[in-house]
Amino acid sequence: MSAAVREKSFSLAKSRRTIQWIVVFGTFVLGLRHIMPGEASRGGSFDSFCAFGGIETLLPYLSTGHLLKSTNLLNFSVLIATLGVALVAGRAFCGWLCGLGAIQDFIAEWTREFFGERRHIRGKQSKTILPLRLPAVVDRSLRYAKYLVLVIILFASLYAAFPPLREFCPVRAVFSLKMTSLLWLTLGIFLAGSILVERFWCKYFCPLGATLAIFNKISPVRLVTDTNHCNNCGRCDIECSMGIADVPINLDHPECVRCMECLNTCARDGSLTIQIRNKENVT
């Protein structure tokens, strides 16, 4: 790998990891703020800062003019900002700005280290037993579960007082610091799933990811493969945390979270580039 490629990979990976830690820290601060004594310290419920809360409360608001309890108009602002990111860069929110996605990335790294991978070599298949990749037939079937979860939540929101996902929300389980028995159960399942399968929640059950998936097809900022440079070595397939097959020909796949690990690990300079799509360069 050339010095330029190593510098590119290090810089991009370091930038993303720094942003992820900032998001995780900020979300924990929100959780801490909302368990402190005094109403003035809270500034609204923890749920108010959730983009998916805006989706959960949207249909009730449009049909009755009332928001679900624990949500407010701030949810719509956060949702609009998230959709704005998606309109520009697809599911980049999931790969860069989601605290839950970051926690899953950290857990996958710590799991590999625990099972013996002291130093990860990019593009080389890990020999650790966990996290694992499910058989293709099982994986493909489970990928549709998040769309079913989204439909069920939207339907349930029309008859609910609180956001339907609230009592089982992994974001609340990880960050809210105000636990119930159901949230403890959710936290246990989330942690176990993230240890077993990399980005377990994102791949199979996240309804916000299901909402944002379509934007990968229409967002102007995208990765593009130069077939004159790419030799289909498979390094990017190994590094893809979302388990996308044949990454160079599936760069706008709905499952892609725009983490740029494929670009990080590419050993042939110029094979993958970030471009702004327009009518002239759509392929």
Order of helices and strands: HHHHHHHHHHHEHHE
> Main β-sheet, in a few words?
2 strands, antiparallel
How are the strands of the biggest sheet laid out side by side? Answer: 1-2
The coarse overall form would be globular
Total of helices:
13
Mean pLDDT reading: 92
Termini Cα gap: 28 Å
Strand content: under 5%
Q: What's the total count of β strands?
A: 2
Q: Which range best describes the helical content: under 10%, 10-25%, 25-40%, 40-55%, 55-70% or over 70%?
A: 40-55%
As residue ranges, the low-confidence spans are 1-7
User: Rg from C-alpha positions?
Assistant: 20 Å
Structural class: mainly alpha
Could you explain the architecture of this structure?
The structure is a single chain. The chain is mostly helical. The chain is built from 13 helices and two strands. The protein has helices at residues 3-33, 51-64, 73-89, 92-97, 99-114, 136-143, 145-157, 170-176, 181-196, 200-204, 207-212, 235-239, 261-265; strands at 221-225, 272-276. The protein has a two-stranded antiparallel sheet. α1 (3-33) crosses α5 (99-114) and α8 crosses α9. The longest helix is centred in the N-terminal third of the chain and has 31 residues, at 3-33. Mean pLDDT is 92; it is low at 1-7.
